[in-house]
Amino acid sequence: MSAAGTLPVLEASGLVKLFGRVVGLDDVDLALYPGEVLAVIGDNGAGKSTLIKCLSGALVPDRGSIRVNGAEVHFRRPQDAREAGIETVYQTLAVAPALDIASNLYLAREVRRKGPLGSVLRMLDTGEMKRQSAEHIKRLGISTLQNIGQAVETLSGGQRQAVAVARAGAFGSKVVILDEPTAALGVRETGQVLKLIRELRDNGLAIILISHNMPNVFEVADRIHIQRLGACAGVITPKTHSMEDAVAIMTGAKKLAATTD
After folding, report:
1. Is residue 149 part of a domain?
2. Structural domain includes residue 165
3. Is 91 exposed, middle or buried (0-12, 13-18, 19+ CB in 10 A)?
4. What is the pLDDT along the chain (261 residues), one digit of tens a residue?
5. Domain around 199
6. Which residue of 92, 124, 184, 226 has the fewest CB atoms within a 10 Å radius of its CB?
7. How many domains does the chain have?
8. Which pTM was predicted?
9. Quick check: is 144 in a domain?
């Protein structure tokens, strides 16, 4: 996955973000490869959220560079990141419960009818949005969403998470960033979301997973980026290190001699 010659789909080099005298990010590097799940872990205040906000356009780093498919980009707002193929799903989900699944997938991206009905009367083409939504969900391999016309308020927590992730997967042509996607879910629904993450990865999407849940991280992550005190304390894999190792590195009880790709 990170073999020689493989170009990262998303790469950050030397990111620095200061909040007055507080160092949010301290010279952080990150590389994400196609078809990979990269977990980002760390204690509160380690810089996880700041890092993700810089990668998704919510914050502008003070120093450093970000590249998408090898080309340097300068995100000034989240829309810039979305246009570059990077979608972010936050804990709050930002779904509209009263709307159906298709309408949620096309929220703020609505398809209007052709001709004067769409351009003048601004009527939505609900049939086309349902058709395209069904295609997106089928292409992404999402099995938990069956009825595209079902109202989101009637779905379980895991299914609502699937709607938000499906929206990101449908329009995030390169990268999907998931912020604590299983934090408020039960065991069964957590299993559904982890299955969905694997399905997205198997369909070629690159995924950044921010999570405090170590078993979840070690179940689906290909590599694990560890943040500590605003800096990257190392990159490990579930094959080379244990959960105990990850926690020890995260808390400073153990240091890596070198990062592992």
Report:
1. no
2. no
3. middle
4. 444 458 999 999 999 999 999 999 999 999 999 999 999 999 988 999 999 999 999 999 999 999 999 999 999 999 999 999 998 888 777 788 899 999 998 887 888 988 888 888 888 898 999 998 888 888 777 777 778 889 999 988 878 888 888 888 777 678 999 998 888 778 887 888 888 889 889 888 899 999 999 999 999 999 999 999 999 999 999 999 999 999 999 999 998 865 444
5. 10-94+172-251
6. 92
7. 1
8. 0.83
9. no
